[in-house]
Write a structure and sequence with these properties.
Elements (H helix, E strand, L loop, with lengths): L1 E5 L4 H12 L6 E5 L7 H6 L7 E3 L5 E3 L1 H11 L9 H26 L7 H20 L10 H16 L5 H4 L1 H9 L4 H4 L6
Parallel strand pairs: 1-2
Antiparallel strand pairs: 1-3, 3-4
Helix pairs in contact: 1-3, 1-6, 4-5, 4-6, 6-8
Length: 197
């Protein structure tokens, strides 16, 4: 069986887990939750960089980095497609930039309690706010249909900000995205992957 080394809070893991659900592949993958800071030997064998997600295929290939894993899933099951047109890829990039910046703040605080006020921390906060607002403005009209990478990443970005930075009104910054997220709130891919920790 294929194994996904994961963490229940990582947005990079979540986009992979959501894609597995949307493609109908979730039941074919064993998800193994690990502490990425604990250097579990099996996890490091899957990814010597010690980052989640790490994906070990049934034939033993080790795949790392969320976007590369998503590309692999697309070859396994092309329908429904994850990767859309250029506009969808642009929205996906905005969303990934938002949650990448948020992860950088969380990790930066581990080594420097004043990270948020320093140059890099300020830039990451700006990326979170401005990127979320741009993502909200770029959303197409309509709430239905399968979730592609753009939708998956957008929901992941909003939920991660709400989870990690609860004192800010992220839904107010991105009301269209909040409505999109609410329209998909009952999907198994959303319900079963909400960040917890």
């Amino acid at each position: 069986m294929t194994t996904l080394f994961a963490n229940p809070t990582s947005p990079f893991v979540r986009v992979v887990r959501m894609a597995l659900h949307e493609k109908g592949l979730a039941g074919t993958v064993e998800t193994r939750f690990v502490d990425a800071w604990a250097d579990d030997p099996a996890f490091l064998d899957a990814n010597p960089a010690g980052r989640v997600p790490a994906f070990v295929t049934a034939d033993g290939a080790r795949l790392t980095e969320a976007m590369l894993i998503l590309r692999h899933l697309e070859t396994l099951r092309p329908e429904p497609p994850l990767f859309g047109d250029d506009a969808a890829l642009s929205r996906a990039g905005l969303a990934v930039g938002v949650f990448d910046a948020a992860v950088a703040v969380i990790i930066g605080r581990k080594s420097n309690p004043d990270f948020d006020t320093h140059l890099v921390g300020r830039k990451r906060h700006r990326t979170m706010h401005d990127g979320l607002a741009r993502l909200d403005a770029a959303l197409p009209d309509g709430q239905g249909g399968a979730l592609d990478l753009a939708g998956i990443a957008a929901i992941t970005a909003l939920d991660y900000l709400v989870f990690r930075f609860p004192g800010e009104d992220w839904r107010g910054i991105a009301p269209r995205l909040a409505a999109f997220r609410d329209a998909h709130a009952d999907r198994p891919s959303v319900v079963e992957t909400v960040p917890r920790g």
